[in-house]
């Protein structure tokens, strides 16, 4: 082992404290960070171009690694020194694993968030397109899981989009917070080497710096905040899954799930079990568990780097790996599910009857009790159709088909504006990263 001063590489402590398993998630990001560091050493005049070239070539050839290393950073540095020789040792100048891993984690999370935004946009567009076609597809809406009032499938879908819109904003804030560079901060108080931290940040496409070197090396707040936002997204999906499980059951039977989302029983051939929705609920639960682990580990740490921080890493990736598949599952089921139209309980128009009475001049509470007494006595009758019920709704955000059409247009404009802002923001760091490649190619030539 390259850094170990006490004991031997055969001590059980070496394997017990190793982060090699979770580090495999960030191999490419660690290589990119090391390249930026080497290039900065060259641009700042600390190493010669030929040395930089040899080290960059070694970094590019680094792949999977084996051996008793504490982490990927030690493994990579040892690999460089063995391949390049003594000159390879220059990579240790002005560098700590603390600022390097913090930078690599942010690069990984940034790339992941980009992918989330791209599939989340596709989901939201799909939702709005189906809402346009279902403004008059009637379903009952529930409170306390008791039938409440008539609404439309479009109204339900727009509720889902509204929830997603809130998380979109939180995720975009997370993206900007994550997109700040810790590189050049050393172990905790920086370094005597005059590294240009702003230039390093530019090369890696970061928007700016995590300025304070304690925060840069030892804070994981932005990453935990991102997992929190992603967990909220999974929370939304879990509620949708629960809705669809209940509404598609034979007890209710309002929704029919696509055949590709159900499975039968090994014994009971009539069953249509909502298996994808059940699994989605568990994935959401796993994210809640990983978020709980993150905050529980993080809450008691003293400021500055502690090895506990490396134990957070696997919880980031264990959660994030569930999110994009879940978006695809939700998109597919919302696109393909059918409304059976089997609901005919006219009592859910009772509120319409009471409001219509009140609008003739009767105090609403008196009208309410009049209708309630008829329901209790079993004499309630309503001439109001479900279609008429939703058409009567007069407030913004209600299922009135005309108001729904306006809402859909507003939501389309909203998501297109946010998508445009995201793409412009993404292009900024993509362009900057391409500049790093240009400098690297110049050195390698």
From TrEMBL:
It catalyses: 2-(N(omega)-L-arginino)succinate = fumarate + L-arginine. Residues 12-289 form the Fumarate lyase N-terminal domain. Its main location: cytoplasm. One of its GO terms (molecular function) is argininosuccinate lyase activity. GO terms for biological process: L-arginine biosynthetic process via ornithine. Pathway: Amino-acid biosynthesis; L-arginine biosynthesis; L-arginine from L-ornithine and carbamoyl phosphate: step 3/3. It is found in: Cytoplasm. Belongs to the lyase 1 family. Argininosuccinate lyase subfamily. PANTHER family: ARGININOSUCCINATE LYASE. This is Argininosuccinate lyase. It comes from Stygiolobus azoricus.
């Amino acid at each position: 082992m390259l850094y170990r001063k006490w004991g031997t590489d055969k001590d059980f402590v070496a394997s017990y404290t190793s982060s090699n398993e979770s580090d495999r998630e960030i191999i490419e990001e660690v290589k990119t960070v090391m390249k930026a560091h080497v290039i900065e050493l060259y641009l700042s005049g600390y190493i010669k171009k030929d040395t930089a070239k040899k080290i960059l070539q070694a970094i590019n050839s680094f792949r999977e690694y084996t051996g008793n290393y504490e982490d990927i950073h030690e493994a990579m540095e040892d690999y460089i020194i063995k391949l390049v020789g003594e000159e390879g040792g220059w990579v240790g100048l002005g560098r700590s694993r603390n600022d390097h891993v913090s930078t690599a984690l942010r690069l990984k999370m940034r790339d992941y968030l980009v992918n989330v935004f791209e599939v989340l946009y596709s989901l939201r567009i799909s939702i709005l397109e189906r809402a346009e076609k279902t403004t008059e597809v009637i379903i009952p809406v529930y409170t306390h899981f008791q039938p409440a009032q008539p609404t439309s499938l479009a109204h339900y879908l727009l509720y889902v989009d509204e929830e997603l819109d809130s998380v979109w904003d939180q995720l975009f804030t997370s993206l900007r917070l994550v997109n700040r560079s810790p590189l050049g901060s050393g172990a905790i108080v920086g370094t005597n080497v005059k590294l240009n931290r702003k230039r390093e940040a530019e090369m890696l496409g970061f928007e700016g710096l995590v300025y304070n070197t304690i925060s840069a090396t030892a804070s994981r707040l932005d990453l935990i905040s991102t997992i929190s936002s992603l967990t909220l997204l999974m929370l939304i999906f879990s509620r949708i899954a629960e809705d669809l499980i209940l509404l598609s059951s034979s007890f209710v039977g309002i929704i029919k799930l696509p055949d590709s989302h159900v499975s039968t029983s090994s014994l009971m051939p009539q069953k249509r079990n909502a298996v994808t929705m059940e699994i989605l609920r568990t994935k959401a639960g796993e994210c809640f568990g990983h978020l709980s682990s993150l905050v529980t580990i993080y809450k008691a740490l003293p400021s500055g780097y502690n090895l506990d921080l490396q134990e957070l890493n696997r919880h980031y990736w264990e959660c994030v790996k569930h999110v994009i598949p879940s978006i695809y599952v939700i998109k597919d089921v919302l696109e393909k599910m059918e409304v059976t139209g089997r609901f005919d309980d006219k009592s859910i128009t009772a509120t319409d009857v009471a409001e219509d009475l009140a609008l003739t001049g009767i105090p609403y509470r008196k009208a309410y009790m009049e209708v309630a007494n008829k329901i209790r006595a079993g004499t309630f009758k309503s001439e109001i159709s479900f279609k008429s019920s939703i058409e009567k709704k007069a407030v913004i955000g209600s299922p009135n088909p005309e108001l729904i059409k306006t809402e859909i247009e507003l939501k389309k404009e909203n998501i297109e504006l946010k998508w445009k802002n995201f793409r412009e923001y993404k292009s900024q760091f993509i362009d900057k990263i391409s500049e790093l490649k240009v400098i690297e190619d110049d050195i390698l030539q």
